[in-house]
Amino acid sequence: MSMNNQGRPTRQDNGSDAGGAPATSTGNRALLLEEALIFEIGDAAHTGVDFAPAPKVNSRLGGLDRRSAIGLPGLSEQETVRHYTRLSRQNYGIDLGLFPLGSCTMKHNPRLNEKLARLPGFADIHPMQPVQTVQGALGLIDELADWLIKLTGMTAVAMSPKAGAHGELCGILAIRSALEARGDMRSVILVPESAHGTNPATAAFAGYQVEDIPADSHGRVDLEALKARLGPDVAGVMITNPNTCGLFERDLKAISDAVHDAGGFVYCDGANFNAIVGKVRPGDLGVDAMHINLHKTFSTPHGGGGPGSGPVVLSAALAPYAPLPIVERQDDGTLVLIEEETAEDHHKSSFGRMVAFHGQMGMFTRALSYILSHGADGLQQVAEDAVLNANYVLRALEDVLDAPFAESGPCMHEALFSDAGFAEGFSTIDVAKGLIDEGFHPMTMYFPLVVHGAMLVEPTETESKAALDQFIGALRSVAQRARDGDASLHSAPHFAPRRRLDETLAARKPVLVWTEPDAVIAEAAE
Amino acid sequence: MSMNNQGRPTRQDNGSDAGGAPATSTGNRALLLEEALIFEIGDAAHTGVDFAPAPKVNSRLGGLDRRSAIGLPGLSEQETVRHYTRLSRQNYGIDLGLFPLGSCTMKHNPRLNEKLARLPGFADIHPMQPVQTVQGALGLIDELADWLIKLTGMTAVAMSPKAGAHGELCGILAIRSALEARGDMRSVILVPESAHGTNPATAAFAGYQVEDIPADSHGRVDLEALKARLGPDVAGVMITNPNTCGLFERDLKAISDAVHDAGGFVYCDGANFNAIVGKVRPGDLGVDAMHINLHKTFSTPHGGGGPGSGPVVLSAALAPYAPLPIVERQDDGTLVLIEEETAEDHHKSSFGRMVAFHGQMGMFTRALSYILSHGADGLQQVAEDAVLNANYVLRALEDVLDAPFAESGPCMHEALFSDAGFAEGFSTIDVAKGLIDEGFHPMTMYFPLVVHGAMLVEPTETESKAALDQFIGALRSVAQRARDGDASLHSAPHFAPRRRLDETLAARKPVLVWTEPDAVIAEAAE
Amino acid sequence: MRYLPLNTNDRQAMLATIGAATIDELFVDIPEAARLTGPIHDLPMHAPEMMVERHLKALASQNLVAGEVPFFMGAGAYRHHVPASVDHLIQRGEFLTAYTPYQPEIAQGTLQMLFEFQTQVARLLGCDVANASMYDGSTACWEAITMARRITKRATALLSSGLHPHYVSVAKTMARFTGDVLEHAAPGLDAATDIADLIGRIDKDTSCVVVQYPDILGRIDDLSALAKAAQAAGALLIAVVTEPVALGAIRSPGEMGADIVVGEGQSLGVGLQFGGPYVGLFACKQKYVRQMPGRLCGETVDAEGKRGFVLTLSTREQHIRREKATSNICTNSGLCALAFSVHMTLLGEQGLRQLATLNHAMAVLAADRLEQVPGVTLINESFFNEFTLVLPKDARSVTRALADRRILGGVSLGRLYPEEPDLGHGLVVAVTETATQQDIEEFATALQEVLA
Amino acid sequence: MRYLPLNTNDRQAMLATIGAATIDELFVDIPEAARLTGPIHDLPMHAPEMMVERHLKALASQNLVAGEVPFFMGAGAYRHHVPASVDHLIQRGEFLTAYTPYQPEIAQGTLQMLFEFQTQVARLLGCDVANASMYDGSTACWEAITMARRITKRATALLSSGLHPHYVSVAKTMARFTGDVLEHAAPGLDAATDIADLIGRIDKDTSCVVVQYPDILGRIDDLSALAKAAQAAGALLIAVVTEPVALGAIRSPGEMGADIVVGEGQSLGVGLQFGGPYVGLFACKQKYVRQMPGRLCGETVDAEGKRGFVLTLSTREQHIRREKATSNICTNSGLCALAFSVHMTLLGEQGLRQLATLNHAMAVLAADRLEQVPGVTLINESFFNEFTLVLPKDARSVTRALADRRILGGVSLGRLYPEEPDLGHGLVVAVTETATQQDIEEFATALQEVLA
Ligand SMILES: Cc1ncc(COP(=O)(O)O)c(C=O)c1O
Ligand SMILES: Cc1ncc(COP(=O)(O)O)c(C=O)c1O
């Protein structure tokens, strides 16, 4: 179909689903509004801000004054508000409905947390202010740290990592520092196949070789095989618990003992901590380091991809190597910030610094607000309801969807299904796209890799029974269509702002920035 | 089609426009989400709030403790956020697109104003706090009042009226008080046919008889006919300027002189002040009282029907009768609030009190923020751009839409069209509903009454040329379809959350509150 | 300027299309003499966002914020904790920047919300139906009196002495012009309300009796007998509720037979706002629906048979009926009604009852403590979250002295009834869930100092 | 509890469906010994919203708010006025509560925004392409160094002495483990940067030269010669921009030949936030795109031929390539990128240039005024909105003394370079549009007092 450069049909056409309905000249469909790019609607001669006139001074820019145009379009305030409001309406979010994205813990994001994170006392302070002027901020970090340590049963926590993967890096570096401190150069980190991609990527990023840990037929780590592989070259293992099949690693304690006996350390990927918070403390299972995704378990919003926050709790063995900066409470109750300036005396063995400042303050505020709202009792209830919801979904659908590990007993916070049983040529993606039409965000697709056509469903504890029942009904009907080979599933979604998008084209000839149409034509002409 | 009680088809069906697309089991269409009533999804046993346990005390409720159930459903916080987020997505607002509702001045609502209205110093103070604790709030009211007086060239302003109609009432009561003060009992208020419904309703509400003022063929008040009607029984006239045909009443000064000579007063409906702010001061045209819709000219949000605010500026002749409370600045700079307590000494002749407290503080804050942002220069630009945009629309569409008064020269802030020229059986409503599919809110329909099938288009100054051009293109195409008799217009809108709604049914058997389905059945069975 | 998208080029191009040489050609209809050329004098020019923010913040900082001090004020406006999600939701552009839902196909969000609001209000007040909101409690009260006049064709209204004096003023102001007769006297500083007296005064000219529940002094009294008496005489009982949270703990006026129940909804979702915007609640018996003022949302179906909502029975309203309308109201308090409804949905029956219980408990604690202040007496036998104290001194000066100590300690009857010297020592004290035991202690201590 | 929709009845019903008698049956896989029964000790129980708000407000009130005092701090984090509409828009539920756009059909809002962000960033930094954001400037800087290593197959990076010391620390920390060699020395307190020196040190082992522009002391220097020299030796020039607003006034690093330009985007839309979350900017030449870390959004079409956007080139990323990925980053700074993009859209070219001009002008005024303080010297010949003063005293104690006077007067080099006694008297002062002439005056006066 021919298009103009604003994604609007040049032939009047509302797509195959418009049926009897007449085309619109705008390409809009009532409240489904098309929106062009800012480069197509704005220009350098319009703006949405006013400034007081600048005092006249002699430039001190060292002769580097910008001469050429930058090419940044401006919009009036209303056009700006409209542009982003319209774009937002093309998105799905937790606020719209159930978002069962396995491994991502898409739970409710309370607005109280947004409000408190915006208190000027937290949002409008500079990271390098003299510590006497930020005692409340340091106090908040200290209070959150105390919660994380107690909830996990560990010794210390590194607050600065900016997300889960960054936390993994922090943990691995702590392990490596501890090994080096005893002059022990090990080169290998063991990672299960079912692990999230960040685990192997992190180990490699930290300079380690990565080897697989085999899994048993029940979706858990094969303890014996693991023991067999342990040795003087193994720095540690990275284990996700509950693992990405939604199962609790029963043998974690035994694994830890074995790894420790072999002189290694145990890193636990805590992305799935939501399933066990208040029910078990990883410290009691021999874990040496674990990151906590505040943007999962503690509900800081995902924001369409970030920011997150990945504090890392550490065992006594790794605590001395925690990165700077570190918040420490003095005997007189005042708080100090240990940075390079004071590290020598207080934190000699810290392995260094991971970020420019103190980590994700804005996320700390939200997480503490969330934690205090639930309290110790509420957080335990969180884990119980998360697990209850997942098992409810698992049992309600196992008759229409293959559940590979259903036999291994109850799942934890997520229910894992596979595409076994679908009609020839139908796969997980068809079910996912079918769910979109039903008004739900799809589950995680094709992960973990250990299951064919994996569908990983994590409802979280913030879904009501009614919401689960509606979701189950919808997934049941879509799954049935996949079993029956209903061809219309291949062309789903039918009602979304866009139909299936051509990812191959996007990757084959990447267009990553906007360029003037004529420029495009010129290029094409070459 | 059969329905369950949640507006969802019981037969799978997505409506005639779904065309080839398969039905969904939920009734949702991707991001177009159906949402049941809170009474259908919540119940008395769920809640979205927590409270500290209440201290034990002996009840002092005088034995009136509530025994029966109230019937108020509760939802968890996430369900609540989701419910209202989903509902909001079924609405159109200025933030989504052009909202050319004539006479309503749907302009951009800056978020700065929302932010400032929420400063605890304004939002969290009690109306009866000792005045020494609210000097800033009184100062804000005083500053806004000063602007309104200067912009209109009047003597005083009554700030407490809660909306335009309430302001009209204030003005008419001031007129009546002034007449009574001179022992002059007049019984008639003259109002043009083209006036907004609140004008006659207000005059009647204040105990006056209402008589029409004839209009001339150019859509303005017929000066001679008006003069002829003036006499000892006429308390005053209510004139809208610019009038609801979007035209400026050229003869207003002459009208005022005539009315004053006949012993009456001139009330001006200032709802359309946006067209002339900074270009002319009503006080210079002999107006005695005029309300200003802060929710129009000064951009406080309409909020789906309110709240508004309708301060009334008064001439020297009416100022003494202004209602309480009144903010007054002392010589020492401090501000006092004149209420019943102090009225005796300061405001003997005030006609009384119109509201419990001081009027719409929250709207005052927003309006002052808007006014200071524009300044005297910006407000004049507002009027010029509003009028420019309206004339641009008028001239761009005269060829496809009949513009009854186009000959009378330029329009002010709104362009008036009629349904003349549409094919047999096509009317204004068809064009309006067609515009909905195009992604625009319709213009005001069938008002003013003086024009057949009136379409009153007020773009406001906050629309860009690009937005106007897109709107003009869409309206042109829909108007052409109405001329050509395109039957699909009768069934528009096709893409909105609902098709045309049955208003007759709603009025014939009013269902104004939700009742348990079985109750409904029982009732039906009677 | 940031809110004006047109720049000079745009304006030139558009003038060209219009066929005008200058913008002033479009303003020819304004008489030359009155037309302004430059900006109006001695008014400031446009300002950047940052400057406007500084200026208003400076004004805001001159006010004593209720949330930052021990706070005990009520008398028609109550401070309750409003969940953060309420304010987030009412700021969604699709709610905030929408107009009155005259195009229902793209206003179902507002319409369904109003239908839910009407149902919540009707149930809370104990009535069959409720409207889509009025300006505030005081104007709703006057509208109810005129409605009773239309229904009964009688023009005399008996106003209880317990009715909020500002509501009385508003009614008296209007009555002067409409010819309605209003009978009213100020309250006495004792535990008994004037219900018995009112019953005695009802006669064949009485259109309605207007009684506040709980009343201005915080007293609660059973309305059943009053309702029966009024109805027996062909008059209506109008009940006024200024603190809807009370109805989570005590019986609703509708339950006790009131024909029309109006109220101030500010307590839920809206906040103090220095008096506005607030939200008027208006509910009544089914049989009076066609005499109601204001907008009504009703259920219907669309062309496909799907349930939907529309504004209905508009033949009562000014835009259709003009001078024959039941009221002149047009814009109402839509967004405040949304805030009220969202807050009520978060509470639900369980939450509302807990909230009411907590309010009453804190009020009882406060009453007991304040009574111990030498010279202070409590007049109420019954109350919900508000009661009246009699002080050994003029209460106006006391509230000012307390304010100097950064305590907002109630509303003086002297301010509410300037013309009633006998009430000068009365202080109305409200206590909600936002007050802590420490606040109560600080208040009591400061009161003792001020009275010493 | 308000965030948990299930009540006891719901839980019972669901357990029944599952066929479990108790919730603990679902936790059988947790070893009995380690399984917790009751809530963890000495941690508080759940709290109402009002209580949580009180507690956090109390903490917030212990901090000195930048906006309430004369404020002159920078050194990698700058205070600019963020229009109110930015914060409103990023709080739209559809942006705030969305996940990474892995389902593009219902994530076009986020995707189109990212495509616009990438274009804005690429243009501002003067590069061909940019990614969808990194954690912050410091991690973006390290990622750039590893990218240069992958491209050049060399492992020695020359870090300019003008590079932010925290960025240097982050890189050094990582290099210890990856085996990269980093050459770096602390800056001298003089007007000249070390560009000439760097050019001299480039050799065949050099993977890249990393230079900050403007640098940590606020100095601006032309990068063209450095770019040429690096490229001539087969190395890359990596430029680091910690104050993107500067690029509204001065030439972009890309224009001057930088191969990779990374930066901290916090200045636009994000705010100070006590250091996070911020947003890392990452841009480079087209030819290096397949070596970039992080997410990339690209244009494509849907099944109907309509333009749409998707995440692309994911074969670089951890979820596809695992240990062979270009980086381990997954979650990035999406919402901060949105804030940056919205703010940039409001500004546009015109607004950004005005903002930059205003920043420079205020900084020049401040520099001139502060130089007049006895004993104070300015080292910069060139600067944008930040410059370095040498004080007659240790600057750490001065900043603390100023703070006691409620003035936040810059960042001391002593804190940034604890191991460099020679820098102890250095003070880095930033001046943005939020500073008034009065703020400058108060700062100068207080500084004089403190130094006296
Ligand atoms: C199991 C697991 N580990 C690690 C991560 C990485 O966390 P982040 O995205 O915060 O870097 C994720 C998040 O997607 C995850 O699901
Ligand atoms: C011309 C005119 N007059 C009066 C009014 C009434 O104003 P309000 O709705 O604020 O009562 C309106 C608003 O609709 C109007 O357009």
CATH second-level architecture of the largest domain in chain C = 3-Layer(aba) Sandwich
Shape of chain C: globular
In angstroms, what separates the terminal alpha carbons of chain A?
24 Å
Name of the top-level CATH class of the largest domain in chain C:
Alpha Beta
Overall pLDDT confidence of chain C: 97
Largest interface, C-beta within 8 A: A-D, 216 and 216 residues
Q: In percent, how helical is the residue content of chain C?
A: 25-40%
Task: Summarize the helix and strand pattern of chain C as letters.
Answer: HHHHHEHEHEHEHEEEEEHHEEHEHEH
Query: Which strand order does the major sheet of chain A show?
Result: 1-7-6-5-4-2-3
Low-confidence stretches of chain C: none
- State the major sheet of chain A: 7 strands, mixed
- Name the overall outline of chain A: globular
What does this protein structure show overall?
The complex is a heterotetramer, with 2 copies of chain A (526 residues) and 2 copies of chain C (452 residues). Chain A is of the alpha/beta class and 526 residues long. Chain A contains 15 helices and 12 strands. Chain A has helices at 38-41, 77-88, 111-117, 120-123, 135-152, 164-181, 198-205, 223-229, 252-261, 340-346, 361-397, 428-437, 465-484, 503-508, 517-525, and strands spanning 156-158, 188-192, 209-213, 234-240, 265-269, 289-291, 312-314, 326-329, 335-338, 415-417, 444-445, 455-457. In chain A, the strands form 3 sheets. A 7-stranded mixed β-sheet of chain A has the order 1-7-6-5-4-2-3, sandwiched between helices. A 3-stranded antiparallel β-sheet of chain A has the order 10-12-11. In chain A, helix 7 (198-205) links the parallel strand 2 and strand 3 (209-213). In chain A, helix 6 (164-181) packs across helix 7 (198-205). Chain A is globular. In chain A, 67% of the residues are buried. Mean pLDDT of chain A is 93; it is low at 1-19 and 521-526. Chain C is of the alpha/beta class and 452 residues long. Chain C folds into 2 domains: 68-81 and 348-451, Aspartate Aminotransferase, domain 1 (Alpha-Beta Complex), CATH 3.90.1150; 84-343, 3-Layer(aba) Sandwich (Aspartate Aminotransferase, domain 2). Chain C has helices at 8-18, 49-60, 84-90, 93-96, 108-125, 137-152, 165-178, 195-201, 224-232, 318-321, 334-371, 395-404, 413-416, 437-451, and strands at 129-130, 156-159, 181-183, 206-212, 236-241, 260-264, 280-284, 296-301, 307-312, 377-378, 386-390, 411-412, 426-430. In chain C, the strands form 3 sheets. In chain C, strands 1-7-6-5-4-2-3 form a 7-stranded mixed β-sheet, with helices on both faces. Chain C has a 4-stranded antiparallel β-sheet with strand order 10-11-13-12. In chain C, strands 8-9 form a two-stranded antiparallel ribbon. In chain C, a hairpin with a 7-residue loop joins strand 10 and strand 11. Chain C starts with 7 loop residues before the first helix and ends with a helix. Chains A and D meet through helix 2, helix 3, helix 4, helix 5 and helix 6 of A and helix 1, helix 2, helix 3, helix 4 and helix 5 of D. The structure holds pyridoxal-5'-phosphate (2 copies). The site of one pyridoxal-5'-phosphate (PLP) has 14 residues of chain B, from helix 6.
